[in-house]
Amino acid sequence: MTDTAVGDHPPAKRSQRTALAVLGIIAAIAVGFALGFFARLPLDDGGTETPGADSVDVGFAQDMSVHHSQAAEMASIALTQSQDQAVRNLAYDILTTQQNQIGQMQGWLSLWGQPSLPSGEYMTWMSSDDGQSHDHSTAGGSAQMPGMASSAEMSALRQATGTALDVQFLQLMLRHHQGGLPMMEYAAEYAQTSTVRQLAQTMVNTQTSESTLMTQMLSERGATPLPMN
User: Fold this and answer.
1) pLDDT per residue over 102-132, tens digit each?
2) How far apart are CA 144 and CA 201, in angstroms?
3) Do 171 and 212 meet the contact criterion of CB atoms below 8 Å apart?
4) Directed axis angle between helix 194-220 and helix 162-190, to 10°?
5) Contacts 24+ apart (CB under 8 A), 208-216
6) Rounded mean pLDDT of the chain?
7) pTM, entire model
8) Is residue 44 predicted with pLDDT exceeding 80?
9) Are the CB atoms for 176 and 148 separated by under 8 Å?
């Protein structure tokens, strides 16, 4: 007999998964940054100006980097702690995809000479040139972006095990995806550069598909989605 419970992963295997996850993150960020920094960002309508500090492009890249960072943290917890292969597979896809996208957005910000993170309220960039708000109740600035998990929720996720961990991860990530969707949709329509619009639309497509999958996975585990915060 050993002290390892049936179905538990030995410490060596958990350590190996953690090491592989870290390597995957590093590679994804490096590739994404290179794509973002060295990409030629075409400006539409014959424009020649680099996106400014108050542009949709810069605001989206800064805010979505923050939003993605929490998703990557949640995915890392699930990848290294879950015993459910389907959950680990989803967590790995989210982790590597969003870290790659963070790298791209940070590469753009560096190229544009803009700070890597927002300095004030979130989502102040979500209004059109005519000054009209286009995003439901979130435009005009917010202290917290929709879908973000609280400190207490993140702490509970880190401490959870077994099915409880899987359900909490799926619930938090689904809400996180749903909360970020308006920002992605807005950038896909209003960003100045076509490359930013394309990435935002890719996020919309990917996360909509993942949201459908997570809703199904929650149902299979006898759980339901969380309400939007």
Assistant:
1) 999 999 999 999 999 998 899 999 985 434 4
2) 23
3) no
4) 150
5) 208/181, 210/90, 210/93, 210/94, 210/173, 210/177, 211/174, 211/177, 211/178, 213/90, 214/90, 214/170, 214/173, 214/174, 214/177, 215/174
6) 84
7) 0.81
8) no
9) yes
